[in-house]
Each structure stands twice: as structure tokens, then as C-alpha cells.
Amino acid sequence: MKNSNDMKKLVIAAAAALLCAQAQAQDSADARAAKAVAALTPEEKIKLVFGYFSTDFKDTKKPEQGIDGAAGFVYGIERLGIPAQQITDAGIGVATQPAAKTPRVRTALPANIAIAASWNPATGFAGGAMIGNEAHLSGHNVMLAGGADLQRDPRNGRNFEYAGEDPLLTGVMVGEQIRGIQSNHVISTLKHFAYNDQETGRFIADVKIDDPAGRMSDLLGFQIAIERGNPGSIMCSYNRLHGVYACENGFLLNQVLKGDWGYKGYVMSDWGGTHSTTQAALAGLDQQSGWPFDKSPYFNGALLEAVQNGHVPEARLDDMARRILRSMYAHGLVDDPAKVQPERIDYAAHAKVSQAAAEDGMVLLKNDKGLLPLADGYKTIAVIGGHADAGVLSGGGSSQVYPEGGSAVPNEGPTGFPGPIVYHRSSPLKALAARLHAKFVYHDGKDAAAAAKLAAASDLAIVFATQWTAESVDQPDIRLPHDQDATIAAVAAANGKTVVVLETGSPVAMPWLGAVGAVVEAWYPGNNGGEAIARVLTGEVDAAGRLPSTFPADESQLPRPKLDGRGLPEGTRFSVDYDIEGAAVGYKWFDKKGLKPLFAFGHGLSYTKFGYAGLKAVPANGTVKVSFNVANTGKRDGKAVPQVYVAKVGGGWEAPKRLGGWDKLALRAGENRDTTVVIDPRILAVFDGKSHTWKVAAGEYKIILAEAADAPVGSVTVKVPAREFAAGAK
């Protein structure tokens, strides 16, 4: 034996062999992780907590074992059977980094905001399961999905990656997506924790918000998503909270996440979100991700040195490694290793999943005189704008999924990140032409007068309007870019039968709304978006979506008419004051201030009509159980989305009412069905900062059944007893 180090290595190897032999399937993830950590050397623990970018970047080569064009790579421990972590973006599908030599072609879901607009947990799960399967068959075992930041501002460039403005809707829909992804033995993150609600100054913005308000808004959305989806990892955000970076914020990571909520997984940083070694480790960050995006490899040699000299306790490093390993065991990464086998991906079936999700989330905003659904009988149909002859728009940045053959409209948008602008190769014009026996004539819409002339000579005009939004940049306002409003107004003046189809990532203003016959919000509809749009416009499927966020009339209605940080010199630190609205986000703000939006949260028309009866509400086990009957009273099959709101009689909340629950029912013409909604106790409660508990005040609560936040169809009042429960309970 050469020296004691060699002996130590043999002993560790023997212990590892014994560990592998003894690890049985029935062992809990906690027990398996504890055994594995006991067998690790300090250097191996460091391997687990330090991640690399898996694409050549800043003169730094990706690790040889990393998948080219992927988001990240973390070395495994081969002798213990611990696989490397192969990390991919994002919540819409398996993305490829722009710097990659060859983009991976994979199936793109509609934008997450479109999935949320379905108000259908099953749609969220199915989409997650599909992209999780493609991730696993692409060799990835960690997916950077699960965007849950609330839509506090419609100008946020990443709204399309999130799930709207309400914490309950966000938590349920994002949690279901995570659950679907992880059903494939792929860890999903939940991101960006927390308050990363704008892109302007995202690396330097300092968020100010009172803790109770945060617990009842943004943090509640994350809490519900964790309970519903059990994500293996939480990704902390770029911004600061009360002066402290989120990725070294002990209040967020140690107190709220791991303390109050009892979260057992690990916290990874966003790429470029780590700013220290000792401070970040002690505050609860478990893994530095995406080196060299950060200024220093904080969790590599520096962390090992900090442990050795006592600045970071060895027990903390053990906890970091244990949390990572626990998630890897709990979610099947060790027992069912991901392999690169794209030949096993069923692209045809996955395209149908994407299409069904797009159809389920498209929102019919307006439909005068039954203009939609379209039927045969038009001789000439003008299709104007939006590159509708070629494809459908997608959002930009790290979530970009690339279509086969590249973008249907090449060379648009910025050449660098977050561009280029990518259109999926699914033409709405071609899909409509395959269904309607009419002559279709296309115009790009850039010349409003020429577009109007074409519309005047046609029996029907369909205008496709687009708004490209992307990571790292916010919108300047909520108007459609490139003078599209003028084109729509001109077309509507020329033809009374004008339909507008919006492909946007956020709410937009509609100064032409009164002049057009119908408006459909299609969002970014994904891989088969053109087919989905055609099926909704022609009524092959019902217009089934409902808005997950309020559409303001203009910026003056927002809590911050001017976006914080806009116009400041680059690098200037600034604060974002969320105490202005506190927990009154979105429709709650509009209710509180008595503002009339363009379209309310939850709004969405159908091609049929629904009736409601038998509304009842009874206290049950510390919450309220609401039951009612929904009937399809029309002549077409359709999907109802009855929404239950709660108002505290006498006030005392941040806003007049809160979303308490909902259901989505597919009903045949003439069919009716009973349904029950159980309200989450936290929706009835106020978070008390002094006692650190949720408190339900005894008294009367009004239960409102509605078709949208501004469209009640019935109400009852129920008496609820007082209740108090812990911050992490429900």
C-alpha cells in the first residue's frame, strides 16, 4: 500500500460497493441519500453542488460528458452509480442554446400562459408528461421548467413562461406540469423563486414587499405548486429581496422554503444568479448552476476551502449533497437513467398533445352576431398579417424550442440572445384553406391601406396580430408593435366581418375592439398552432380557454404606470415597490380600485351557452365545500369553466374577492352535471406576520359562482368558524 490515502480510497470503494448491494427499491430516498453522502469524499460532494454550462461560452469549453447545446451539466459519482445531471431548458419543451452547433428539433408546447388559460389541470399534466418524455429520451434528467412568478405587470417579457396573475391558478397549473414532467424520472425545477416579475433590471432590481402580502400572493403560488407537483429542485431568481440577492436570501431559502414549508429538495441558482460562497451556502443555496455565467466558481474550490477552514460547517455541505441526492433517488434518476435515444420519441403523438393544449387554451374574447365559428359560404377570405401563410409565433429566450427545418420566417428579430424570432411551421392559412371552400388571399399587413383594399374586396377578413416577447427584455407598453393597430382599424373599417387572431405572450390593448366582429387570443400556440387555430375558428372544437390574467384598457390602470427601472443608465440599482398593490394582484387590484378592464380575469366565451343551478356552500373540515349544477343549454358541445370566488362579508382582505376554485367540464349539447369545489383554507385566511400563522376570521363569507371575475351568476353566504394554522400547513 503506497500510503494512507490509497487505503482510504479502497475503504471508500468497499463501502460504496456495500452501499450499492444493500440499497433496495423499498429504501426511502432519504435513507438512500444519507447512505450515499456517508460514502462521499469532500471532493465528491463538491462535484454534486457545482454545475457547468453545457455549451461553449466565454472561452470556456463545456464538460466533455455534457450534452452539446444543453443548459447545464453536473458531474455524477460513477463509483456509487450516481449519474451526471444533464440539464435542459425549459417549460415549453426541450430547448437548445442559441450557441449550439446544431439545434435539437423537439416538440414545442404552447406557451405556459396558454396552458394556464386552459384552466385544466389535466392539460397541464399531459403537456408536462410529453416534454418530460422527450427530455428523458434526449438524455436529460433535469428540466428547467415550472415558471410560477405572478403576472404583476403585463409588460413583463417572460409572462408567456408563467401562469398568470392568481396564486391558486398558478400553483395548480404549474404543479401539474411539474408532476407530468417528473412522471418520466426527470427532475423539474420550480422557478424563479421569488418575485422575478419583470425583466427590466432583473440582475439588480431590489423588490420591496411586506411578508404577509407576499405570503398571500407570489409565495402562495409557489407553495401550492410545491404541494401539487413536488418538484425535485427550486431555482432561485436573479433579483434582490429587501436588499439581499434571492440566491443568498436566508429568509426565502432557509426560513420560508425549507423551514416553514418543509421543502426536502435542493435549491439551484439561476445561471448567473450566484454572488458568493459562504453567504450563499449558509443562506440555503445548494447548487451553483451554469458556470461560467457567474463571476466566480463559488461552489467549487472556494466552497471546499470554506468547509476546510470552518467558514461553512461540513454538515452544511453534507446537507447540500444529501438534498441533491435525495431528489435524484426520489424521482428515479438513479434507477432509470436517461439515455440519448431520440428515435424512440413519438413525434406524431406528441404533436397532438401540443395541439390539444393549444385548443384548450385559446380564448374567444369577442364574438358579435355569431361571426364565429366560421362556416362554408364565403367566396373570398382575406388573411392578413402575422406571417399566417407560413407559421405561428413563439416566445424568445432560453425556452425556445426549435422546429424541424428552422423558423418558418427566417432572419427576423435580434441575431443574438434572446433572438432570433422563431415561427413554428404550422400555417393557419393553409389549415383554414383545408377546411373551408373559399378563395384565400394573403397580405402581409405592413401596408394598412393595401390590406384594407383587399379586405373591402373580400367577404371576410381575418387579421393575425403578433407581439413577440422574450426573456431579458420587457415590452415598452401594452400596444401591438409595428403599427398593427392601424392595420386592424383600417381592415375593420373596410369590412364589417373582421376577425382578429392574437398571437401574444401578454395582454395587449385593443383600440379597434369596437369595430371588429370577433377576437381570439391564441397566445403562442406551439408545434401545431396553425391547425389548432383553424379548428377553433371553424368550430371543430369549442373555444375553451379563459383568461389567466386581466387585460387592462391601458397602462394608467396598472399599479405602476411606468415600469420601475425603465430609462435608468445601465447598471443603476433601483427598487421595485410591490407594496403598492401588495397581495392585490391583477383582478384584485382592479376590484379594489373600481377599475373596468378591457377583459376581466377568467373571461372567455364559448360557442354554446351554460346554465347554473343548485349553488350550495357548507363548512367542512376547516374549509368550505361548494356544489352546483352546470348545464349546456345550447345546441353545440362545449366546455364550461365555472369559477368560484370568495368575499369576506365586512371586508378586511387585500381586495373584495379571491379566486377560491374552479372546474372545467366538457358537456354535450343538453347535458348537465353536478360538480363540487373545495376551497383551499388559505384562500379564506390572512397571513399574520406577528404570529407567523394563517388566520381565518370567524364570520360570514360570500361564495360567488361566476363565469369570469366580472360575471357572477349566483351567490350564497356561509358562516365559517375561526381557525389558525401554521405557515406551512393548509
Q: Pick out the low-confidence regions.
A: 21-26
The computed structural class is alpha/beta
The share of residues in extended strands comes to: 15-25%
Largest sheet: 6 strands, mixed
Strand order of the largest sheet: 2-3-4-5-7-10
Q: For the CA atoms, what is the radius of gyration?
A: 26 Å
- In round numbers, the mean pLDDT is 95
Number of helices: 19
DSSP E strands, number: 32
Give the end-to-end Cα distance, rounded to a whole number of Å.
Answer: 59 Å
| Percent range of helical residues | 25-40%
Shape: globular
Structural notes for this entry:
The protein is of the alpha/beta class and 730 residues long. The strands form nine sheets. Strands 2-3-4-5-7-10 form a six-stranded mixed sheet. Strands 12-19-18-17-13-16 form a six-stranded mixed sheet, with helices on one face. Strands 9-8-6-20 form a four-stranded mixed sheet, with no helix packed on it. It is 27% helix and 21% strand. Helix 3 crosses helix 12 and helix 5 packs antiparallel against helix 13. About 1% of the residues have low confidence.
